[in-house]
Specification:
Elements (H helix, E strand, L loop, with lengths): L2 H27 L8 H6 L10 H9 L6 E5 L5 H8 L3 E6 L2 H13 L6 E5 L12 E7 L7 H11 E12 L4 H9 L16 H7 L5 E7 L2 H8 L4 H17 L9 E7 L1
Parallel strand pairs: 1-2, 1-4, 2-3, 4-5
Antiparallel strand pairs: 5-7, 6-7
Length: about 270
């Protein structure tokens, strides 16, 4: 079996497992309220550049997308599709799970954004989009599910010249932190068996064909500990503010961050 054939077979295995897992996820979420609270929509409508929260920062980097075509890459049930449509984008949501896309369509319709978005069942490794047809690719916690070399080529292919790709991803560079993390008896629910934290090296390799690459780190280990222990929201917010100050003032701590927001330009 050739290398390309073996890789394609492995990707297909990943995707089949993900479709099955997502069907179970969709069944659980179908019982939930699909409406997103107004204060959450407002929170991501125009967040500041110095926000200490990584999802807010992702939406800051997004900038003005009024009437631009934005690919919600791995859109799931359409949470980000709503926020993108609220920013004036023409949203194309792609996900491998037809079950999740049914909920995404219902969510957009509930928010009266049905005419601002369309959803397509498709693989992140083989996007159902034409070459250079998208202004922005927006992917929140999707890359770490994927075969990176194949996904990078697809993201590059569908972006227009000068288009941007924005990703928010879990990272784990430190072998020591990885070891300590494995000692903690905590397991996140609904994990895909193929997902894994990425490294800075992998992110940079993903961006090698792009003309520019920017990265900002978030979430040193103590922030994750506060979250895992379920401590108060007030303490969590304080830890996030401290996290920002430490990462801004002590450069080498970047290596120990557990989340990166990256922006690439074609």
């Amino acid at each position: 079996m050739g290398v390309a054939t073996a890789k394609a077979k492995e990707i297909k295995t990943w995707e089949n497992v993900e479709v099955q897992r997502s069907a179970s996820e969709a069944e659980k979420k179908s019982k939930e309220d699909l409406l997103i609270k107004d204060e959450i929509i407002e929170r991501y409508s125009n967040p500041p550049a110095d926000t200490p929260y990584y999802l807010e920062y992702s939406y800051h980097v997004l900038g003005d997308v009024e009437d631009k075509i934005v690919l919600d890459y791995g859109c799931g049930t359409g949470d980000n599709s709503v926020l993108l449509a609220n920013r004036g984008a023409k949203v194309i949501g792609v996900d491998i799970s037809p079950d999740l896309l049914v909920l995404a369509e219902k969510r957009l319709e509930a928010h009266k954004y049905k005419n601002k978005a369309e959803f397509r069942v498709g693989s992140a490794h083989e996007l159902p989009l034409k070459d250079e047809s998208v202004d922005v690719v927006f992917g929140m916690a999707i890359m770490h599910h994927l075969e990176l070399e194949t996904a990078s080529k697809e993201v590059f292919r569908v972006l227009k010249k000068g288009g941007r790709a924005i990703f928010q991803e879990p990272v784990r560079n430190s072998k020591l932190i990885k070891f300590v993390r494995n000692l903690i008896p905590y397991e996140q629910l609904d994990l895909s068996p193929f997902e894994r934290p990425l490294t800075d090296k992998e992110l940079e390799e993903f961006a090698k064909d792009f003309s520019s690459y920017k990265s900002r780190p978030f979430s040193l280990p103590f922030v994750n500990l506060v979250e895992v222990l379920g401590l108060s929201d007030k303490l969590y917010d304080r830890s996030v503010e401290l996290d920002k100050k430490l990462l801004q003032s002590i450069g080498f701590l970047d290596y120990y961050a557990s989340v990166k927001v990256i922006e690439m330009t074609k």
